[in-house]
Amino acid sequence: MIETLETERLIMRPFNADDIDELSRLHAEESFWWFPLRRGMRREETARFLDRALDDSASRERPALHAVVERSTGVLIGWAGLAVPDFLPEVLPAVEVGWRLGSDHRGHGYATEAASAALGWGFDGLRLDSIISIFEPDNVASGRVMDRLGLGPGFETSHPALHLPLVVRTITADDWTTGNRSSL
């Protein structure tokens, strides 16, 4: 079971089945899933996403994504955390840090704050040696978050099913522990 993580402004908790309505609202935003879908998700797609997130949360074998709740309002604003990037076999075995936030909550540092908490959990709690992050080069905002988190420059590849360009970046436990990263 994943731990609840708390930051100054966020509560990152396991998903629950009651999140379906708020998550569907977020996932329906075209910009939420622009990279890689170029559209929002339908409710049934969100339900499948939530089922996978619940399965991962219950597993002791796999890391999992957290529901990200704004502490001051109690509103679900997106998700962030750790996952196994099964869609990209060339990087396996690996654990990826990722995040997605609703449009009203971007540009406030929440992605960096949530991803930093997830990296801390991965390195300090799960004792991972390294964590990757994957993004499309056109997703400049995610690239900037990775810069702030201290992920290295990485390598280019492409999404095997969607044939989109991707960049895979990495941070090691040593770099995380020694603080050899950009200031958060």
Structure described in brief:
The protein has six helices and eight strands. It is α+β, with helices and mostly antiparallel strands.
Main features:
184 residues; 6 helices; three-stranded antiparallel sheet; five-stranded antiparallel sheet; globular; 33% helix; alpha+beta; Aminopeptidase; 8 strands
Characterization of the model:
By secondary structure, the protein is α+β, with helices and mostly antiparallel strands. It has a single domain, classed as 3-Layer(aba) Sandwich (Aminopeptidase). It is 33% helix and 24% strand. The protein has a five-stranded antiparallel β-sheet with strand order 1-2-3-4-5, with helices on both faces. Strand 1 and strand 2 (10-13) form a beta hairpin. It starts with a strand and ends in a 6-residue tail after the last helix.
Biggest sheet, spatial arrangement of strands = 1-2-3-4-5
Order of helices and strands: EEHHHEEEHEHEEH
- Uncertain segments: none
What is the 3D form? globular
Radius of gyration, CA atoms, in whole angstroms: 15 Å
- Write the CATH architecture name: 3-Layer(aba) Sandwich
Q: How many H/I helices?
A: 6
Could you estimate the helical fraction of the residues in percent?
25-40%
Mean pLDDT: 94
Q: Structural class per helix/strand content? A: alpha+beta
Corresponding CATH superfamily? Gcn5-related N-acetyltransferase (GNAT)
CATH topology: Aminopeptidase
Number of strands: 8
Write down the domain tally: 1
CATH class division: Alpha Beta
**What fraction of the residues are assigned to beta strands by DSSP?**
15-25%
